[in-house]
Amino acid sequence: MKTRLFCALCALPLLCFADGLPDLGDTSQALIPPQQERAIGEQIMQEVRADGSYLDDPEVNDYLNQLGYQLAANSTEPSLGFEFAAINDSAINAFSLPGGFIFVNTGLILLTQSESELASVLGHEIAHATQHHVIRMIAGQKIDSLAALASLALAILAARSNPDMAQAAIIGSQAASIQRQLNFSRDNEREADRLGLTVLQKSGFDAYAMPAFLQRMQKASRLFDSGAVPSYLRTHPVTSERVSDIANRVQNTKFKLVESSLSYYLVRAKIQATQKTRREALAYFDDAVATQKGNQIAQRYGLTLALLRNDQPQRAAETFEPLKNMVTQNPMIATLAGEVRRKNGDDNAELTAFYRSALQNFPQHRALVYNYVDLLLDTGRNADALKLLNTQILAHPDDADLYDRQARTYAAMGDRQREHHALSHAYALIGALNEAVLQLELAKRAGKDFYQLSEIESELKQYREILDALKEEQGK
After folding, report:
1. What are the residue boundaries of the structural domains of the chain, listed by start?
2. What's the CA gap between 212 and 42, in Å, rounded?
3. How much is the pTM?
């Protein structure tokens, strides 16, 4: 069963001890070593990726990782191996998994009014991760299975979105123990706020953004009628005490204006342009450009996206044209330029030259890579597509979309064994192990390459052992 997860700057109060209370970080790490904590996070990560709410947008997620890495570098555990991604949900929330996996809801991104405010959220979640809050909760449980530990951590996170699920998700003798631990939410949030604020300041962002955003969250929660308030806000609101605590911590800090990056504004515009209905998005950005509201580069970018969604490529090209002079070096602008040219039927030779030049400037921008590979496949240049994909897979071995395109390339080349093998990697990366096993079995029957067969047999054994362990755990 797929479970939607919610936690956050907010709303997920996990166990922590701070300001004179005993620090259990060392104890939890002794009981559950870092390698196992990472494995728990990876297993939950697969559940999240397989869920329909995961936002599979490379530009949004790459931006979050760029911003997140800048903050994590100034955390108490910069080597944790952080990964950041977005959840397609209008709820104002974010959450942190064991091992450094951090998610932010699109609704929260849109609620922020500056990059410093978004950074304050990520800093708070980074603190949850470096203090190993989830692991502290499950470390004392008598569980000897990785799958069971991951399931327990997942249940704790899921219960935050709906407390009524707690008894169904956390059963048996563990339920009372977990509930007692969840009651330490104020200490937990205070510690995450304090450490998150330090990360924010060390990373060069506006410290006043954290109390400002908390106040906006508090106001947002009051807009709901008592019966309509989301359960996480109803049971764990942003308290006045918490807002005051952070405000007091920054009051002696010298204010400095920190401008938000263009990428921040573009990401917000992209989320609005792609998640509103086609008509709503077009009306919204038409008005924003006409009335000169907000960052005009981002508003024109959003209007171009909305026009493409509304099948108006010629007007999209006209709207996009001024951006060529307004912005010269931004990968998201370059990616949109390629999409506009393709929708307007540009010559394939010109498009190929455009993507070659763009990738020289932004070689690791995955959206550009995807679009160029798609163009190469559409024009029958399979060998060129495969060469580019193989290079990118070396740089991004956990990118399921690259393996999916690699499978399409092998299919076009008639190499069925490698096609199914690549598909198995794509399925495994999103946690669909049964489908991965099926693809490996098809690959095994499709060819006779000894080296490939050896790899396939090894992976089949590994995946089947994992599936058997999961079945055994479910049967307990």
Report:
1. 25-250, 415-476
2. 33
3. 0.83
